[in-house]
Amino acid sequence: MRADNGWVKRLLTAAVAVLLTAAAGCATTDDRARPAGGRTLVVALDLPFQGAASDTSESVANAADIYLDEIGAMAGPYRIELRRYDNATATKGSWDDATCVRNATDHVAATDEVAVLGAANSGCTKLQLPTLNQDPAGPMLMVSHSNTNPGLTKPWEQGEPEKYFPTGRRGYARVITTDEYQGAAAAQFAARDLKVGRCAVLHDNQTYGQGVAEAFAEEAARQGVTVLDRGAWDARATTYTALFQAVKATDADCVFLSGIYDNNGGQLVKDKVAVLGPNSGAVPLIVPDGFFGFRDFQRLPAAEGAYLTFGGLGLAQMKAAGGAAARLLADYRARHGSEPASAYALYGVQALQVILAAVARSDGSRRGVRDQVFEGTGVSVPAAQAMLGKDVRIDPATGDVNVRDLSVLRMTGGAETFLKAWPLP
């Protein structure tokens, strides 16, 4: 229950702060008795605040601000501030390689920062991790709410994940399901539910898109679906009519677009429908979570009927479950007059909860914060406080989260409508 009386609100805020500290495993009597106003530490938000992903990034930042207010901006004895970094450029309209690299250098140079929440895109994270990992005061902890490329935490492509951690000490964690599950689930859904037999698979030539496409294609073959193409689309193209005419010539009964909506996804979807017909017709369109949460995609008439996979749960499912997520969404609506652009806002808060649990147990240094996650038993957030509504634990050996959810949604009436949860192995 939300309280409007000031003294009740202060009591609730103090109680939540104590619960977070206790959940982090360090709430001794002495710690709880410390007054607020201790040393201030900064958590950086490294997100694309320009381009098609800006709505989602703003939602993540806004939700993080609200959560921090709710707990009194404290983690153990430390006062916490958030600092925004934009890793996108206006020219590119999405995350940018050089900007990601520069941001990583800036994180290391900002001596009051102890951890990074982000990046949103796996490709950006791969550029940043070696710099953060070699921080003389670290490694510096990074926790992502949306990175799904498997190679960040487990063997995938050559040299992964070791090449991201040159010191030999990991410093990266995430709170979301990875691509090998998402790509495989999308292929299973195409074969079992949509009953397709011949699917064109296209990617945006980036780390994320290639990874999901590979996982989809491998599972599709196991499901008896013929993969017709595994080429890339050019994000700078003005039209994809010829591309889809070539797909049409193969008699495809399915199209899987593996990549991010930022990479000219709107034009791609419009041309798919123009050449191959509506997504509710003979050639359904399936996209991964690189298209999830984009308001432009949701408003696009050509997107109607498209199927999406998302490596987590949607806002409606998290709200229906009640608990911490439902409370935060109520506060978000009260402050901003609407719901967040996507469920990534809640996953962003979940990543922040992991960071704050580590901070609360630490000595306040970068190395100390990182060590709480990757040494010993690691950190956890109990279900009563976790945005995911379940006990959330980070594996100290890999940085992966124990909670694995996956949803299939469909664009219906301009909204990402939950269709079903997909079982994971």
TrEMBL record:
Residues 45-373 form the Leucine-binding protein domain. The keyword Iron does not apply. It comes from the Bacteria. InterPro entries: Leu-bd (IPR028081), Peripla_BP_I (IPR028082). Residues 1-27 form the signal peptide. The keyword Signal applies. Keywords: Signal. CDD domains: PBP1_ABC_LIVBP-like. Belongs to the leucine-binding protein family. This is Leucine-binding protein domain-containing protein. The lineage of its organism: Bacteria, Bacillati, Actinomycetota, Actinomycetes, Micromonosporales.
